[in-house]
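Same chain as my last thread, 255 residues:
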Amino acid sequence: MDYELIIVDNSENKYSIFEAYNIGATKSEGEFLLFLHDDIEFRTHKFGEIFLSLDLPYLGVLGIAGSKLKTSVPSPWWISNHEQVPNGILFQSNIQHCSNTKPQIINLGFTYENQIEEVILVDGVLLFTTKENYLINPFDENYSSFHFYDLDYSLGMKKNGKINYVTNTILLEHFSSGSLNKDWIEASFKYEKKWNKCVGLIEVTDNHFEILAFESRVQILLQNRFYLKTIQLLFHYKYITIKLFRVILKSIFRG
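reply #2:
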């Protein structure tokens, strides 16, 4: 099959990932777009033909990992530790490399081969969409980092009436894992400000997920010494427990 390979050289960090992806997409002349990290290897042959063969009505964006919900508390797409989230919410299928551990095959949420699931949020290691979708919903360059481009793009698609999907029909190997560092936190503030205003776009009816996201958010803020933001979070949300409050106090005074 015919394809274009467009490489955006960002070795000197001239662009945010939002800018880099916009540059690549603007250059593309094809009908479909596939945004990829630069540290992956496909284990499935003819993956492009497979993507094009899938039945994806009202396609927004397709990936290999994602979540069926977005919490009001800003969190990674996986919300919290996978083992704490009930089955059928999170999906991931790839070979993953993490620091200080051997590569592992992850098959989270999927229960059979060639499965396709509708989701809200799609992880950015692989994003498959159409050029038509992109022209309506380009990457938001008001962000200036390498975080939240995928979640922001996913919600943009949903806002435009599209459906996002994840699938295990292809397998790729990812040679790094994400980092929830200070840059991630700074980007999360912009993400929260932008999307929490969109009333009715996302609806979470189970406080269990909100509590998981809240506890995860507190831990991330404390690990990166965002103590004031942690305190502000406590006043904004009502999910604090005595145990968590003690953890917060201990972290602040230790820091």
